[in-house]
Amino acid sequence: MEYLEKNPNPTKDQHFLVDKDMIEQICDSAHIEDGKSIVEIGGGSGAITDFLVSRNNSVTVIEKDPYYYKYLKQRYAGLSNVQIIEGDALDYNFESYDRLVANLPYTITEPFLINLASSGALEYN
Questions:
Q1: What whole-number percentage of the chain has pLDDT above 90?
Q2: Residue 103 and residue 122 in contact, taking contact as beta carbons nearer than 8 Å
Q3: From edge to edge, which strands make up the β-sheet containing 82-86?
Q4: Among candidates 113, 107, 1, which has minimal Cα distance to 47?
């Protein structure tokens, strides 16, 4: 993992995934095909984002922490297929994306899934 000036804060439920095999397993389980639009919740240090970008997809990352938002914005500034948004994933509608990938903080898992289901984003053929 790249050295950052700020470490994940467990009291804010920040735990960053660094195991490349686990990242690949998570992304593979989403059945992502090239060219699809993907939203990632909580990009953190960019470990999952790197994997998603390597697969020729349009990737939108929603990051709540201002430090990591700025870090990701700078890190992916040269890539036209990556959009970094500073915000709370609980405030977004995800219907327009083909896939959603996240290593969700435990504290938002239940409200996030409730919002996702009630938005209609889980209704697909």
A1: 32
A2: no
A3: 82-86, 58-63, 37-41, 99-102
A4: 1
What's the length of the chain? 125
Quote the tokens at residue 55: 């697969």
Q: Could you give the CA distance from residue 78 to residue 88 in angstroms, rounded to a whole number?
A: 24
Question: Side-chain half-sphere of 43: how many Cα atoms within 13 Å?
Answer: 31
Better-scored residue on pLDDT, 1 or 121:
121
Q: What pLDDT digit, counting tens, does each position of 26-81 carry? A: 888 888 888 889 999 988 889 899 989 887 789 999 999 899 999 999 999 999 99
Model pLDDT, residue 124: 58
CA–CA dist 122, 125 (Å, integer): 10
Encoded tokens for 74: 């700078």
Beta-sheet pairing, 58-63 with 37-41 = parallel
What is the Cα–Cα distance from 22 to 72, expressed in whole angstroms? 21
